[in-house]
Amino acid sequence: MVAAPELAPASVFPSSRRRRSVAFLGTALLLLTACSDQSEPAPTPEPEPTGLIAGVERNAPLHSVDPAKVAQARNLPDTYPGSSASADGSEATVTLRGGEPGEDYRHGSVGLSLESTDLADPRMNRDNADLVTVLDSLHEPTLRFGGNSTDRRFFFTASDEPIPKDWPLNEGEEITKVTPEDLKRVAKLAQRTNSSVIISANLARYHPDRAGELARHAKEAFGDRLVGIMVGNEPNGFYQGKTNDLTIKSEDWDQETYAKQLTAYAKAIHERVPNLRIVAPGAYSADWWNAAADAPGTDPMAMAVHQYPLSECGSQWEHQEPTVANAVDPATRDNIDRLVGQAAEDAADHTMPLWITETSLSACSGSNEITETLVAAVHQAEYSMRVQEHGVERVAAHSSLASCEGGAPMSVLCSNGTLANPGEAFSVRANGLALALIASIPQGNMVETSTSTDNLTSFAVEHGNDTVSVVLTDYRNPASGKDRTTTVNLPFAVDYATQSQLRGPSWTSKYPVAGLFEDHSNASNSPNPSSSATGGPSASGAAASSAPDYPADPDVALSVERALKPAPSNAASVDGYGLPITPVGERPRVGGVKAGSKTVDVALPAGSTTVLTLKKTQPSRSPKESQ
Fold this sequence. Notes:
Mean pLDDT is 87; it is low at 1-39, 45-49, 520-548 and 621-627.
């Protein structure tokens, strides 16, 4: 296990010096007051701050607070702990190439995929504080509604029709009715969080006109936030054998039949909403996504691909089993490149954008050794960069609104309560923190990079404002690997570098979502302003131990108090905390970086994803240029 780097005591941090200065000033003011006319009535004292951040109410939801204020209250040090390179020299190298910038990288590139039936969930509303916080952390994300429920249990009606009684359902399943009022409710959430939306139409229950009405009402509700409508979900999986629970078509279902039906749906949709982008097929097979691309009458269209690199869905290949060993194996990344690279070529041949509308490290029912863990989070961060280098415009991690207890184990987010009675409060898991870390990277253009070893990957984004982001993922075992000095070779000189880091003590470390749902109505649960459990910066602020009790909202898990409480030492986290991710401008600097150098040496922990922000050195201007 890698020991957490030691931090300087809170008293040596600049914020502590500021507090001492304020205390001195306060003492001086008291002395002056004592010498004044005692007959004057004492001024009414200002009310004490109600929370750990001045001017912010106690237990305020995170979305209502500037993330920079939260970062400052965490008492971040100037230099990132443990980032300084070893004096023993470089053990690995990363090289950024010069030349023309590559693929676009933008906000909204990462997002969430949810089930179509989730549109009917009343928790999907603009007043759900935790959902607003999660979506805000993804910076203008894509919200895709689809999944297996689309063709099996999703029934849209604009005229209050009764739920069909002749659909085949598996035991325990029920049909969910979605109405225009549901779309309007979700649209308010999308507007508040500046999210783009993809809606899916039921293809298995063939009804093009119903899809057209869904498109019309979705356009009315979401406006320009509606970026496309998917026709069905994974049609290549409609027939999986007579005894498979997911089979919803007969064995004669094929690509030709699918293409004809896709054309009919596109016609009905475009009659109501001209030029609305058709998104298809949401498949994991090249034959099916090319069948969709070749279907007549579907322009404009986005090619939609799904990928679960380590699926549990009956794979007979050992290298696809959902294990830690396979998750970190370079062969898994090669397989990702192979599928996504082929899809990118096919999308380019058809002159259409490529979207990955559903993905995760593992799929199908049940938990396994990689669900909810650091290794899944590191994969999610690295995957989000990898596919964008291939030209993928949008990538949505499949998620669920179900409870953490009993719900989908690979979901980015989950709620409190139980599977039968889920609650209003939500949290992200470790892979959700990974998405938020990547989403914090400003938009720009991808830059070509290379590494000296296959257990280290790198990606870079040029932002056009004299900064460059570099994402480094170290695939060594965090339980046994030591920090590795890594040299980043640059085609430009830098003034300094800052960093933020996803890490944990073992590949199976998890982010402790359950702790966010515990009762936090009393001061004993408030962060300790003088300690840190993870080696990350300690929280600061008012002395919570002497503060009166302030009942917390039981429906809000992602509050300021929770954000200032460090994660346990055995947990996966970003910089020792959960949400919010520290904004780029507030991040500590990498130790030992020399201004004007064309190299950055940084110590990378095993089993981590690190985002460096490099500030370029500006060449000195001549006196004539300065005039």
